[in-house]
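Example 4.3 (complexes with small molecules)
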Amino acid sequence: MRIDIITVVPELLESPLSHSIVGRAIKKGLVEIHIHNLRKYGKGPRQQVDDYSYGGDAGMVIMVEPVFNMINELKAEREYDEVIYMSPDGDILSQGIANELSLKGNIIILCGHYKGIDHRIREHLITREISVGDYVLSGGELPAAILADSIIRLIPGALTDETSALSDSFQDDLLSPPVYTRPSEFNGWKVPEVLLSGNPKLIKEWQDEQAVERTRRLRPHLLSE
Ligand code: SAH
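Answer. The structure with S-adenosyl-L-homocysteine bound is encoded below.
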């Protein structure tokens, strides 16, 4: 898989996408991430990529032309399955969307900044819009990092047994059961007895019960879908 991310602040993406599970997936060759600075196609000596908005609203808007040139440069090299714009009014990111995107070959992710991007980009160049929730952030970089992380950890081979995705929350419309590690007692706080029983059947039953109980209490809509 290959993910190309277009941004005006590449520094915001470099660290989140080069460590831990994502960093290892890159090293193993399971995914390539290419971060592109939109200023490459900026105008004039200041490599300007934004301008005042028509209609006089406060805030700068990313211009069509640099984005058009950047996306065309990438599309000339290879086919893309999706050109995604991170946007507060997009589809809210879910495990289902992450699962679906983890099966794609090449995707572009465009990060907005300032007041957003010229709407013509969304109308003509974007195939999908994704939000990380109903709140507004300063730029699309952190949302893009969240999206990329949620996708990459699902690529076969990215997770080892120790970090298996199958038992994670949402994977089967259930939240994950609580987890504990050594010591079995700390400060008088005990690990549930059943987990120390060594009986896999009882442990599985307890975990299933906990998953259903937590889902009913914390995310009831998952059970009714
Ligand atoms: N004026 C816009 C917000 C712009 S915020 C509006 O009201 O909808 C600047 C950029 O940050 C956006 O272009 C988008 O790329 C990104 N962004 C902000 N919040 C986001 C969210 N919840 N999900 C995904 N991207 C977001």
